[in-house]
Amino acid sequence: MRSLLEGITSTLRLAQQQEVQQQAGGNFRDTSTKCLPSAPQPLASVGVSRESRDGESAVASMDLLSGGLFNYSRFSMDSPPDFPFKMLMVTQNIGGINPIADEVEGSGGEGADCACDGLSSGVQRKVMEFLSELRLLIFEYSLCEYTAYFKARCASDESLLQSSVGAVVDHGPPPLIDVIVVHLQEIGGKKHHREFIDYLSNVLLKFLPEAGWTSGLLMETNGDKDLYTAVGSVVFVSHRMCPISSILSFHHRTYVCVTDDPVTYGSSPAILFHGKKFSGAGDSRKGFLLISLRLGTVVVNFLNVHLYNDTINKNASVSSPSPFEPRRQEALLEALAECVVFVSPDDPLFIFGDFNTRLDICNMLQYLKEVKHMDVALSSNDIRSPDSFWELFEDPQYISVIKPYDVEIQRLIDVVAEQSGIELAEFVIRFPPTYLCQLKANAELPQPMGSPMSFSEDNEIVEDLSGNVDNERISATLERITSVPRRPYMRHRIPAWCDRVLWNPAALELMTGRRTSCAAGADENNGNSSCVLRRYAYRSAAFNHTDHDGVTLLF
């Protein structure tokens, strides 16, 4: 079967070569003979509307992510013609940023100071700090891939092999990942909070000014309890992808090129997603949101889900499977049934969000009591247990004890395959449980474990916009978000891998199809194929002010 990525990469290569030729006034340089990437273009602010290209928006973006993190995480809008296609997916439950709770706690203090947008300054600060860390993680992913590309392209040049990895930085910042899709759940905390939604929407438009296009925050903003899910998604597309990228208008049943400003195509961003509250959700805000992109000739679908949680600890432990599992299965089946009306199940489908999948508590507690002689007592909203119980989750050497009880996700996958015919899978998990983490500042967190990826190190001193050196903050943040998370857990819920990324066979072909495209493009690059970049990263990240670890998938 023809690789899905072959069409994307070949189209990108041709378009970029033509652009370089035009910029050079007809003096086209054969980029295949050059190991070093071309110099990056100056930054420009781009977003949903053309007006966001002006300098004022760029300044606003820098002000948004100040403190040194923005200056450190700068991207190039240019990339080598043979730079491989890259996609990043991020899911994060941001219920830990609770505007109502923060405003109550901050009454009479800093949190009570209402700045613009009718939102307390404390809440705004938390949003900005979370987004600045997310941007920093995107930068580290981009830099890591750029470094690997640089090494592969220069492998045949001994003189360049003697150069340090930092030489990549000398030739400009890394290009932004081609497609970034971020899924958020529990936006605004436990209640509908219009001011929070508006504020988050505004700052997300300035979050990545180097992107060629952003969808903005796509979500249902109507606070009606029968409609509101607090689930939202945002898409960022690089400049080189814009000419061949479009997004589905569900209202018109057609794909609209991102260069035609699809948000205003139907006068409302609501046409760019299909989302609903689950039929059995009641007063809870559980639901889903679907968006669909067409990249060249390839349609890729992204489903954001927030499934039902366990409501009572003790009830979850009475049997195996848990009595709460069937509701989660029914919810995912409902979401998929809604999706196949609009998209083909034969197209790549990525499902990522807060699945709320829990451990097999019944069998796990039985094992701990009989084998480890450990008594754990569960009440409706509390857990009485020895410290050694929590060490099973917080100490990586005990991961083999609890991982065998992470079986709900496989049962969920089996039920979906049996009842809908949609086959799903997940990469092997090598990160700690993502739920329910304590909210801690950098200084209070234990030292993180080693990073599963070889992120490059840059010892350059970074200054914030005020001219103050903030190298310690950047180092601490980088260490936390690029290392395997090691946060303590709240003591009233049993930790679990709630946040995940699932995919169907067509999505797997999209992720692994680079082999064909690399083979096809090797001759064009005089044999200097970048096939070495065939890899993926499935990992978690501990962002500030969140009680779930975020989960990312890069390929």
UniProtKB/TrEMBL annotation:
**Protein name as catalogued:** inositol-polyphosphate 5-phosphatase
* Lineage summary: Eukaryota, Discoba, Euglenozoa, Kinetoplastea, Metakinetoplastina
Alphabetically list the UniProt keywords: Hydrolase
Q: What class of enzyme is it?
A: hydrolase
Q: Where is the Inositol polyphosphate-related phosphatase domain?
A: 139-526
Q: Could you say which protein family the record assigns here?
A: Belongs to the inositol 1,4,5-trisphosphate 5-phosphatase type I family.
Q: Which residues cross the membrane?
A: none
- Listed GO molecular functions? inositol-polyphosphate 5-phosphatase activity
Does this entry carry the keyword Methyltransferase? Answer: no
> Any one Gene Ontology biological process term?
phosphatidylinositol dephosphorylation
Q: Does the keyword Iron apply?
A: no
* EC number assigned by the record: 3.1.3.56
